[in-house]
Amino acid sequence: MIKVTSRLIIAMTLLAAAAAWGQPGLYGTAGLDEKPGGRIPLDLTFYDENGENIELREVLDKPVILTLVYLDCSHMCPQVLSGLATAVDAMQLTPGKDYRLVTVSFDESDTPVDARNGKANYTTSITRHFPEDAWKFLTGDRENIRRITEAVGIRFKKMDHGFVHPEVLIFISPEGKITEYMNVPKYNYGLAYPVVFSTMEMQMAIGEAAGNEVSATRAGTPLYCFLHEPPGQAKFFSLMKVVGIITLISLAALYVLLKSTGKGRGINGKETDGE
Amino acid sequence: MENNGSREVSFYHDTGKHHGILAWLLSTDHKRIGLQYLAAIVLFFLVGVSLGVLIRLSLISPGTFMGAETYNRLFSVHGIIMIFLFIIPGLPVAFGNFFLPIMLGARDVAFPRLNRFTWWIYLTGATIIALSVLLPGGAPDTGWTFYAPYSIEVKANVGLAVFGVFVLGFSSILTGLNFVTTIHRLRAPGMTWFRMPIFAWTLYATGWVQMLATPVLAITLIFIVLGRVFGVGFFDPSKGGDPILYEHLFWTYSHPAVYIMVLPAMGIISEVIPVFARHRIFGYKAVAYSALGIAIVGYFVWGHHMFTSGMSDTSRAIFSFITFLVAVPSGIKIFNWVSTMYKGSIVMNSPFLFAVSFIFLFSIGGLTGLIIGSLAPNLHLHGTYFIVGHFHYVMFGGAGFALLTALHYWFPKMFGKMYSERPAKIGWLILFIGFNLLYFTMFILGYNGMPRRYFDYPPRYHTGHVLSTIGSWILAVGLIIIFANLIRALFKGEKAPSNPWGGGSFEWQIPSPPPHENFKERPVLKDNGH
């Protein structure tokens, strides 16, 4: 038993060491450098959901809640956008009149078709009257993506599964000034829509963006979107499975051994007793 | 068979080739090993109780008696000692060792030297844990669950404590193997599976749980040690690990461990109730099968410890459902114990009183378990005193009271002395009152939102804490009376007859205390003893 255990420990150590190799700095280039008061270049051009060219100044005519995501994300982006859609319903302000939502994809391979599908996905869940123009889903080329992400201070990193990047709401005034960054306050495990924004704080932030006032980030650190199953974990789980199955088989073997009867193995409760 | 004791030398006098303390430590006699285990677990129980009383003392006036850090270490060490040194080994190693071979009509367990080895492993593990408490660096302050990442990062001697628990695990696994083999191989003629005493059935179920579940704990704890010593990140997200994985692995063991603690307790109650009700146990097969049922279903409920840790709704619903299923075999047992008493001629001796209070307290523990096993109340009650109340009713009201039941039931057989009934009953009554005041108050505190493990609290919880602490004092007085009575009986008790209670199983057919190899000739079970 001890021998087996010690071998197991050695195997585990080697495996874990291999998995851990080169891990530090994995997400080193993704991050958020907040630039409250910074300016968004209004001349950047993107495609809207219909494939039309659109300049940023055209959508920045009222306070804007800007989100930067990638559209085939299956991790945190859909949660954040759903939370945003829920907040639209909860707020008293009128979407399209008091404010506009703008979601820009930083994945240059995303197309207007992806944008159209994404938009339909989130706007259908909104129950109040919601004008078509109140939420723009924009896609663009590498250069325009580089310039907008630099302007707002978002650094993302391409990985095998997609992108590692921070999830944050960025409030922008009609003059193109960044007035506030709002982090996801808490991830509520167990809820159907685990990302819940405070409607009161959002309304205040929209009001401040309308007045061109810059305010500090309210709370917390940015929520990151990343692959929640780290590399190496699958290997680890297969190891657990193998060890578990071996344990079960040896116990089953023990049971069979104990049940088998042979010469000189005692009386074991049988009535026929030689003595 | 009555009164042949005077002609046979008891195992106390038959020392073999060693003398003094070595006659105990080097003995392979299951009775000597059982008694040494009994001494150890009673000692750790009393140490644990003392720490518990100190925790309660601190809580009536936080900051007066100790600082927050000391408090954290105190409740952690209380938990570690009570769980790993007392309850988990507890009843099987002490009473299982002493009585299982006798009940089956065997001379010893299947592997006597392996048995002795488990005792040495236990001593080693206990020593390592004691070192972790006493060495500079500080006693563990993580709680007995050693949750990652705290247990990996904290400075206290967690590594040592975890290693001690790891070592104890091997004692548990080997004991399980030994008992299972003994039950398969060493039953006396006529002792078919369904004529075995129920205690043997519960030890059988427990043995399999020990063998199957304990390795998981061992591996988990090794991961903690590797994390602390070599920085291997099994539970560290930045290195590819997952802290929730720790909780899963830990509870995959620790929930079945609850049944390691409680199943033998149920076995003891199933022995005691029929003897004092003068009535065969009602539904023998149902009681035997329900032990296996609890052991099997108990493997699939660990997730209910983690409903708030992050788990999908589907998993939570399934874990909650299976948790409810465990109530079925437990309910069968309780129903059968009560039915056994029905129309019996009950003799109200102290073992019976302890056994009946087990049924009462364990039922409260079990039913509150259903409350926190359902999803919605769990979200409210998780991490509160409600949980603390619940598991003390199950652990102390269950396994703890079963220990006291067993002590009073088998004391005459083990030591050949009778204790006084009256102090035992008085002690029982005081203990029972103190217990309920101490722990029932916790349900109310927890329902009102008092979080567990907190050093301080808002004034509105003060009354509850004071009541609970007074309960702890009453409970301690009860325990002092009970143990003083037993210790007095050791030295001044009258000589016990071989069968003081009129029991039917094999241990009552041999002298008290039993001779070295239990039986002069191989006993044959002619009648169904139940």
Describe the structure.
- The complex is a heterodimer of chains A (about 280) and B (about 525).
- With about 280 residues, chain A is α+β, with helices and mostly antiparallel strands.
- In chain A, strand 4 (about 65-70), helix 3 (about 75-90) and strand 5 (about 100-105) form a beta-alpha-beta unit.
- In chain A, the strands form three sheets. In chain A, strands 4, 5, 6, 8, 9, 10 and 11 form a seven-stranded mixed beta sheet that branches. In chain A, strands 1-7 form a two-stranded antiparallel ribbon. In chain A, strands 2-3 form a two-stranded antiparallel ribbon.
- Chain A starts with a helix and ends in a 16-residue tail after the last helix.
- Chain A has helices at about 1-20, 55-60, 75-90, 110-125, 140-150, 200-210, 235-260; strands spanning about 30, 45, 55, 65-70, 100-105, 135-140, 155, 155-160, 165-170, 180-185, 225.
- Chain B has a two-stranded antiparallel ribbon.
- Chain B is globular, with a radius of gyration of 23 Å.
- Chain B is about 65% helix and about 0% strand.
- The longest helix of chain B is centred in the middle third of the chain and has 35 residues, at about 245-275.
- The relative contact order of chain B is 0.11.
- Chain B has 16 helices and two strands.
- By secondary structure, chain B is an all-alpha fold.
- In chain B, helix 2 runs antiparallel to helix 3, helix 4 (about 90-105) packs parallel to helix 7 and helix 12 packs parallel to helix 15 (about 420-445).
- Classes of the chains: A alpha+beta (about 280), B mainly alpha (about 525).
- Chains A and B meet through helix 1 and helix 7 of A and helix 7 and helix 8 of B.
